[in-house]
Amino acid sequence: AQNSKDGQGLSANKRGDFSDTARQALEEQAQAVLQLATELRAELLKAKADTAQKLLRQAVGPAAGEQTKVTTTTVASRAAACGKSGSGAAKGEIAGESIAADFLCICGKDTDKNQAAVCGTVSLSANEITWSNVANAAAQWKELHDACKKHSKLRVTTSADLRAAVNAVLQAAASGSGTNKAKTYMLGAAIGTGNSGCDGIAGNNGGCCVYYGEQKGDQLAINWAQKMLDAADSMEKAQEAAKKAFRLAENIQKLNKTMSTIALMAAAAPKQAANVAGGTALPQNADQCEELTKSAECRKKSPICKWQGTDDKDGPHCKSNETAEEQQDTQAGTGGTK
Length: 338
Known about the structure:
Elements: H1 2-13, H2 20-46, H3 50-60, H4 78-82, E1 83-84, E2 90-91, H5 99-107, H6 137-151, H7 159-174, E3 186-190, E4 207-211, H8 223-272, E5 276-277, E6 280-281, H9 295-300, E7 305-307, E8 318-320, H10 322-333
Antiparallel strand pairs: 1-2, 3-4, 5-6, 7-8
Membrane topology: Lipid-anchor; GPI-anchor
Function: VSG forms a coat on the surface of the parasite. The trypanosome evades the immune response of the host by expressing a series of antigenically distinct VSGs from an estimated 1000 VSG genes.
GO cellular component, one term: plasma membrane
């Protein structure tokens, strides 16, 4: 954009010398540069990954270590919070709200389920969760989060990684749990009929699980999984915008070069026009030398013409410079090469 301003300035400075055609060409090029610059700024804004990062943070939930509650949803019990897959099935009140919330439903410990190591090798040392006010949930989430980071091999997350992770979760949720694996739309382990809900109790018909309910419409029942897919879309759009921004920058550079060429050619035009004096066209070849009767005009046509008068008085003293003419003929015969 700065170069476009320079081009306009150059056009203004040379306005007295530039032809109308050159000025118009420069103005058109400058407008094209400004238009592309506007588009470039818009694409650069789209190319930022802020949207995807925001969606991923929402999907994960509160940052580990923060004192923020894992959920602000008011719940009465673990079963109400995490869902019931059996008779009178009901989606958990925090089911799918965030990865953090679901981890606590599956792996968290409380006074009823006080086993410290449920998920993998993670042994929770934080105090038991009180579900009525979600006390101690943030501390347990930090332990689970930190344990997951140790097992993660990803250094750069791509949109393909996000989609693959969501597909794996959906397949796991559809695989079934409980008696004859009849309970679907859930993660974790249901026991028996699941009628007692995801209560965290290792007795009949309960379990350490989270129940999402059947999916309705296009939106996933697992809210955080939908946010991950939206983040993947956002990342791909940002990548396309970055590619378009690069192409726009290249086009701006080409237009700037074109403007420079037009400006240089227009600036050189007055010098070329110096061959015209007093409205009389100067000769374009040696045969016209004799038409010149003024010493100054003849010398301007050197080396094609040569003034042979004894002084500078007007007269038929401008003759063809035979040596220069021979060189010109030789060059013409060899295609103009020296």
